[in-house]
Fold:
Amino acid sequence: RCELPDEEEFERQQALPYVIISHAWQQKEVVFEDMPYFARLAASPSWSKSRSANKIKGACQAVRRMWKGEITHLWLDNICIDKKNLTELSMSINSMYHWYEGAAACFVYLEDFPSVAVPEFTKSRWFTRGWTLQELVAPRKVVFFDKDWNVIGDKVSLRASLTGRTKISNDFLLHKQNIGHASISQRMSWFSGRETTVPEDTAYCLLGLFGVNMPLLYGEGRARAFRRLQEEIMRYSDDQTLFAWRSIHAGDRGSGLLAESPDHFQQTGDYITEPDRLNNRPFQMTNKVRPSNIAESEPMNYVGLCAAAVDN
Structure:
């Protein structure tokens, strides 16, 4: 609740309106375990997490100022998810897109952006983080704030700058079209230039963007997690732009048919599917790469044809 702030649990069926916060994590953040002692610790300016505490208090003040009591709750990932509980962590990551989508508004806090008078807000570190992609796309209403919680603008008024920085078209950015109508390669290309602290999160932060769920296996590595993501996408989509990636480093051959990183899609933002023109047939992967009617001694020359087009 924004009045305290404190933590409060709700039953799943309760539909309380809430504001959700998007931010780039710093090294020392207030976390779930700190909340029972928040009021006492936040009162001490010498607390090592005082900067994070000020961010939480600033968020609460911004909600009260803008909504004037109509909305009294906010959601902030670092204090609302118990990361020591692996079941809760997995559920939260698989549900994150829907939580941002269901918020009354998303407040983006640009801690490294000094003033609304500075025009280059898109140079903020926030635009380089992997998790913030879905936090920009999923909510209908997104409001940007500088480090002092002054309003910079919203997703509508800032759409030209946002589209120029992220390469996400207005149709998808402003929900004029369903995000599912963007091709797989288009959505992958939006991740270009972003990174995550934990390698596997490169794949996990994209789950909601593609409408899939999968178990989290921290320790499996970035490439394997991203391969599992692509395999999960194939279970639900016949969009062949999934295979339209290209290597960005010499000697990088990917993992066969699938890419090792979303960075391999950075040049595919204008690839679209055309279901009305091309009848995409279902496809699947197998560990058998040689058709059974071709002898082992025969040379193998294959040409792949993807059902896709370039958007002019």
In short: The chain has a mean pLDDT of 84.
